[in-house]
């Protein structure tokens, strides 16, 4: 019996030793600009991060595997150690931060951009204005609003969380709310059905995929009136900069690798000159405005 216990103990120690060695080997192989890692991304900002990864990989000897998921799914994978790098439209909450503190890991959170949640309607709908108070009333179950239905990309998405938090409700109503699996499906559904209001990440309208480009001609991007406000504002880069668009949100990259790996390098890239220029070109608002270099010539040839 003692021999069996000793063998079991030896086996456990051996497995632990090999696991630690593998972990150390991964750390040694991966640096801030070299190696391979997985990045979890909120699906609503997938196009922007795809562009960032393409430039980063073209600059350094690095491979970043992008896994786009709904916000809840991305966080579940993040906490399960599928990846320790994630791009979200929120920071870690108290429970999530405490989880990493217990692992002796200090989360590194970097703000990379300001995004917007856009509201879209079918081109046949003449009204291109919408008031947040009507959206809130609809989410609270008021059937007397002008809104016939809201269309979300995913019941677990960041857009659902944002809108339910704004309305002060835990869940969306059972009637009049439609959920799919992606932002592409939202665009397609609204383009084919009048009377519906789509709730979508602005990034998908500014950087549409080939699958939805043709559908964009059949939708309106609505101007939104904030709570207790009189004016309506479209989700433009200028309105994000001036703070007038009421459905703005910040984007963050959160790194909990616990060592100097690609998470640290990619976060620095996103917040740096090149990364912020990519944000600017995407139509979102950079956290730091990239500088402009002027070449002054003494004479004109």
Automatic annotation (TrEMBL):
InterPro entries: PBP_domain, Phosphate_ABC_transporter. PANTHER family: PERIPLASMIC PHOSPHATE BINDING COMPONENT OF PHOSPHATE ABC TRANSPORTER, PHOSPHATE-BINDING PROTEIN PSTS. Keywords: Signal. The keyword Signal applies. This is Phosphate ABC transporter substrate-binding protein. It comes from Flavobacterium palustre. The lineage of its organism: Bacteria, Pseudomonadati, Bacteroidota, Flavobacteriia, Flavobacteriales. Pfam families: PBP_like_2. Residues 36-272 form the PBP domain. It comes from the Bacteria.
């Amino acid at each position: 019996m003692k021999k069996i216990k000793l063998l079991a103990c030896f086996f456990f120690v051996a497995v632990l030793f090999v696991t630690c060695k593998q972990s150390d080997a991964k750390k040694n192989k991966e640096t801030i600009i070299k190696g391979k890692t997985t990045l979890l991304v909120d699906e609503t900002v997938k196009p922007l991060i795809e562009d960032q990864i393409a430039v980063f990989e073209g600059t350094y000897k690095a491979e970043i595997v992008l896994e786009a998921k709904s916000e809840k799914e991305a966080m579940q994978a993040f906490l399960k150690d599928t990846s320790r790098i994630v791009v979200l439209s929120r920071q870690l909450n108290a429970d999530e931060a405490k989880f990493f503190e217990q692992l002796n890991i200090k989360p590194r959170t970097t703000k990379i951009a300001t995004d917007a949640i856009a509201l879209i309607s079918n081109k046949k709908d003449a009204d291109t204005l919408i008031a947040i108070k009507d959206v809130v009333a609809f989410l609270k179950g008021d059937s007397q609003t002008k809104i016939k239905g809201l269309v979300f990309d995913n019941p677990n998405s960041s857009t659902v969380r944002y809108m339910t938090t704004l309305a002060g409700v835990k869940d969306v109503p059972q009637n009049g709310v439609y959920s799919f699996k992606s932002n592409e499906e939202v665009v397609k559904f609204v383009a084919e059905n009048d009377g519906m209001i789509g709730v979508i990440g602005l990034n998908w309208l500014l950087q549409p995929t080939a699958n939805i480009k043709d559908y964009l001609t059949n939708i309106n991007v609505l101007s939104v009136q904030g709570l207790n406000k009189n004016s309506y504002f479209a989700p433009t880069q200028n309105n994000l900069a001036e703070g007038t668009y009421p459905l703005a949100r910040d984007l963050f990259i959160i790194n909990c690798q616990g060592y100097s790996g690609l998470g640290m390098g990619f976060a620095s890239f996103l917040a740096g000159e090149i990364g912020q220029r990519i944000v600017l070109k995407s139509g979102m608002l950079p956290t730091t405005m990239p500088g402009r270099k002027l070449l002054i010539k003494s004479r004109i040839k």
